[in-house]
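Hey,

The postdoc asked me to send both predictions to you directly instead of through the lab channel. I've kept everything plain text so nothing gets mangled by the mail client. Protein one:
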Amino acid sequence: MTTANGQTPAPFMQDAPAVISTLGTDAHQGLTREQAAHNLNQYGPNAFTKPEPESMLSRIVKTAADPMLIMLMIAAAITLGINITRTMAGGHADILECVGIFFAIALSVTITVVMEGRSAKAFEALNDINNDTTVTVVRDGEVTLVSQRGITIGDALQIGTGDKLPADARLIESNDLTADESALTGESVPSAKAADAVFADPKTPVADRTNMLYSGCFVTAGNGRAVVTAVGDDTEFGKIARELRAADTGMTPLQEKLAKLGKVIAVVGSIVAALVFMLQVARFVASGTAEQQSTILFTLFVVFQLFNAFNSRELGNASLFANLLRNKVMIGVFALMFALQVLVVQFGGAMFRTVPLPIDLWLKIIAVGFGVVVLQEAIKAVKRAAATIRARRTANESDSQQPHQPITLDLVD
């Protein structure tokens, strides 16, 4: 039996003998062992295709992209730079402070990644339990128990009250049979089934196909026999699962509130850090003799401008370090300008009225000047996080404003 365009009608559009003939099976004998092995190889196991697992590196990077962790990493980098400068200048370095910040970052990332990994493994374990469920089928004329994964198209199922259906199937016999399809169709009342029903309209809704049984649903009364018509991803539940995997999950309301809180904390923290930074610069400049103060101010101004120009290499909210070595000529120009500044300060005292600065002061000036880069990177990180939150919120709002379109899941080949 074929339609006008030469295609085989969906199982719910054919009577039971036609479906049995199309699938090459037998209502009473079922598939032979050879047929079952061939169909299993052709159509695959009766299981949903698992999505590609996320790599450990990808999970770590995604976790570390949290605004709060970005702030911690910036604080750790600043602390490390200050302590390195103190060590090179012969001062006291607070190693414990650096270790504490890095330990907090590592602990947060580790806990998040481990907990997500455990959740994924628990979900896989639940799926494995379902896959180990045995189903009563007829093969070679004998009633046998087969694992749910081993069910294939053409298998003849014997079903009764309380059975969970392992795959989509066309009824061939039914005795006062009803099935709970609420998980699939949302119907609160069990659906009455009839093996002799045939539908002419290929767009008949899933809930109205009384001659079909669907994977994941339960038989609430009666008994009967059915022949499997779809397994795994080709079942109605499999199609829904495929749609869900393709859809963007978005953010939960709690995640949105936490992200907003993180953004506020990041902005306040950046403002406080900027104030502390300016106070430290003022304190740094106020130390030393009058000649040293004027030289430090002059050198700080030049170093600030150099680092600020270096920041301007990357427009927008992209990180400066994403393509650090892209323009090597400009890096060479910056290095040359800094070398000229060193020559002016160390050897141009008579002409520029500067005094030579010791190495520890040079290191402090470089560390303070680099604060411009750190501050700019922190601002960019906050802006990137805010843009991501806005994009997700806009996507969620646009999805909610669209009229709900029910998923049409026909079995037409």
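Protein two:
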Amino acid sequence: MKDWKNIRIWRISAISLLLCLVVFICYMPIFSNGFLDSWDDQWMVMNVYTGSGWTWENLLAIFTQSHKGQYSPLVELNYLFLYGLFGYNPFWFHLMSVVWHCGCVVLCFFLVRRLLELSGDINRSISFHVACLVSFLFAIHPVNVESVAWISAVKVPMYTFFLFARIVFLFALYGNTKNKFLCYKLVLFCLFGIKQGAGVCLSTIIVVGRLVHFA
């Protein structure tokens, strides 16, 4: 039993690394791109919040103020983190977008596999291979190109990451009332909620998920 568990961990780790490698190969060309100075990057990325550094006043402003109709504090913290380390070097901003997408692809694998296993009609081998295929298609699908290649659109892969993470925990921890797991759920819920206004859809997903689980 222990050997089989080790094999499963190895397989999952291997497919996760392989999916990330596929993402990096597909998006390699964007690393030589710069900022789109006339297409939102000049105010979404290069703004007063990013340039003001890690001061308490700036952090308070990020979480309490909107900027040109946008309220995405985690996105701004993402820009602030990169600017603090590398300045306005577009390579690192593109790299972070790709890293967020890698996280989404890996979580997509876990989400699809878990959903198929919860159905009870599909064995683990089939669910594993289907999850591999779906996450691979998600990794390379052209619909994601804009949100990954465009620095100002990093909010989309970030939003997707927290959405997938919350749903994965939702299905993986049903019925588990241990305090630490409830804390994980609460943290992910809060991060997802302040990530983007579209986070309100999470409540609907939770309701539908519970109906599917208990049907």
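Summary for protein two, as requested: Residues 90-119 form the longest helix (30 residues).

Thanks,
C.
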